[in-house]
Amino acid sequence: MTDPIDRLALAETPDDVASVLAVAPHLSGDAARWHAARRAVRADLARDLPDADLLALRALDPADLTPAEASRLDAARPALDAALARHPGLSAMADAADADARDFARMFDAATDGSAARETDAPLRVSTAEPRPAALRAPRAADRDAAPRRRGRSPWVWRSAALLGVAAFAVVLSTVFLRDLGFDTITAQQAQTVTLADGSTAELAQGAVLMVPTGSRDARQARLRAGDALFRIRHDADHPFSVETPNADVLVLGTVFAVSVDDAATPRVATRVTLLEGRVDLALRGTDAPVRLQPGQSSTVAALTPPTAPAPADRGAALAFLPDLDLRDVLARDAARQIAERFGVSVSVSDALAAEPVSASFRMSDGPDAAVRALAMALGAHATGGDAAFQIAE
Amino acid sequence: MTPFDPAAVLRAQNGDVTARDAILAACLPIMRSFFTSRIGRVPDVDDLSQNALLRVHRGLNVLKDPSRIKALAMKAALFELQDHYRGRYSAREALFDPDLPEPGSVDAEDVALQMDMRAALATLSDHARRILELRELGYPYLDIAETLGTSEAAVKMQVKRAFEKLRTSLAGALALALILLPI
Questions:
Q1: A-chain residue closest to B91, CA distance
Q2: Contact A143, B54 (CB under 8 A)
Q3: Can you tell me the distance from the alpha carbon of A18 to that of B107, in angstroms, rounded to the nearest whole number?
Q4: Residue A7's closest chain B neighbor by CA?
Q5: CB of A108 within 8 Å of any CB in chain B?
Q6: Nearest chain A Cα to B125, which residue?
Q7: Residue B174 CB partners (closer than 8 Å, separation 6+)
Q8: Cβ–Cβ of A123/B30 closer than 8 Å?
Q9: CB of A118 less than 8 A from some CB of B
Q10: Model confidence over B132-177: pLDDT tens digits?
């Protein structure tokens, strides 16, 4: 296939596109429009079916779903049906998932019928701490004599290789288990706030995946595997708090900062940290060359590259994932602090009002001016100032 | 007794390592056969099989009904296959890497020069849209062909035709937008 237009249409990788444009730079506009069209297709698919696992759940026998899976599927059923009707590709994918389920059942049944013959195959080990299972020991001579001879029996070198493979797999599994041992994983189905063992909090965006320590694990740590989170870390100078992402380490004292892990472009995972208050050090995972952020700055660790130089942050973009503020019976000074934190402004409340309880909701889209005035109204007070500094007084 | 008998599964759930190993060992050839039938004899089959076994291992601990081991294994395999395609789907996002040579001044925002990309896509036939969507969902051309019961060459031809059609309609729309653009 030499036609650059055809090659561009079928391009699978960035290198494919680059090689076409290298010989046919006049197609750059077509390439961009084609890319935009494909992006539109992806955006529509992601909008209409954000959770592709639903297709697998739909293909399973309802009796085989856990209660959580069943309720998740039921809740999504109307949207799922609408998406299938709207997208012929999704409909084909759903049919394929149905066929996958049928074929797997057939293969499983066929294998189960002959499983007695497979029991002498090398089993897999998932824990190196347990006694060696009998099936991994060499068969006794009497067993060998008694066992029916199988065609194509593997020579000892193959058996050794199989055992080495099993051992290597066991090491991988053990490593995974040990790494995650002592952590609970929280996947935010919707925006939620998690209170950590030391009293620090993490506000998670929908879809964020946070691992928090349990039991004997050091409580001053957390792992953000994906998504956006706003951390408010309790100050403890003697015990810095660490946040680990797939490719970065964030070391903090007492502070407020946002972390965003973009794992959608695997393997080019990126971690962006935006500091609102306090001080944090950001480093590439497992290295000792951090950059230090000042409030209002952000830095990014892309894939396996060092952190970018701290630069002024786009606060609005970094906090765009947060839900609207809905405060119930909080002190006025705390409400003012949260508004200030959200919008990056200064909000002071007179001493006479500071300890007054207040309940109010603030939409992020309305901006700081509207939020401050709404707070003042809830307190029966007046707001003055503007831009970046507001005052509330009777 | 097979490793999948409810009594054996119960033993595995109660900490019998030998029973657990036997279940995983019996699952491995099934997983390999299944993934090979889906994505061919590629190195990914081993990765998918191991990940699916990991799902089975974890799922065993919370499996309520030991007689449902087949469903547990099936779920592990289907989810793993979905993840495989999803990984390819995510990789699509990298098609235009920021590091690539500048592909031209017409990016998504420019295309949005009052141009309705989705209207252009809507002019494609259902068959063409089905192929484009499957492609963007991470399916390779060969898998699309097998899913739709056609040949890989026919699928590629559909993609090329869709590209040509969009190329023509979008270029026309862009020209119109530029003409109508106030100076």
A1: A265
A2: no
A3: 16
A4: B160
A5: yes
A6: A88
A7: A29, A33, B106, B111, B113, B115
A8: no
A9: yes
A10: 999 988 888 888 888 888 888 888 888 888 888 887 776 665 555 5
Query: Region A165-176: what's the mean pLDDT?
Result: 63
Query: What are the pLDDT digits (tens) for B60-90?
Result: 888 888 888 999 999 999 999 988 887 766 6
Taking only the tens place, the pLDDT of each residue in B9-66 is 999 999 898 999 999 999 999 999 898 888 876 778 888 998 899 999 988 888 888 8
Answer yes or no: are the C-beta atoms of A392 and A379 closer than 8 Å.
Answer: yes
Tell me whether 0.90 is exceeded by the ipTM. no
* Rounded to 5°, angle at Cα A371 from A365 and A373: 140
Q: Taking the model in full, what pTM does it have?
A: 0.48
B120, B110, B106, B126: which is closest to B168 by C-alpha? Answer: B120
Residues of B in contact with A118 (CB under 8 A): 25-26, 29
**Subunit contact B105:A88, Cβ cutoff 8 A:** no
**Contact list, B37 vs chain A (CB under 8 Å):** 103, 107
Task: Please report the beta strands in chain B, taking only residues with DSSP state E, as ranges in sequence order.
Answer: none
Chain A hits for B147, Cβ within 8 Å: 92-93, 95-96
Q: Retrieve residue B83's tokens.
A: 């993840």
How far off is chain B from A157, nearest CA to CA, in Å?
Answer: 20
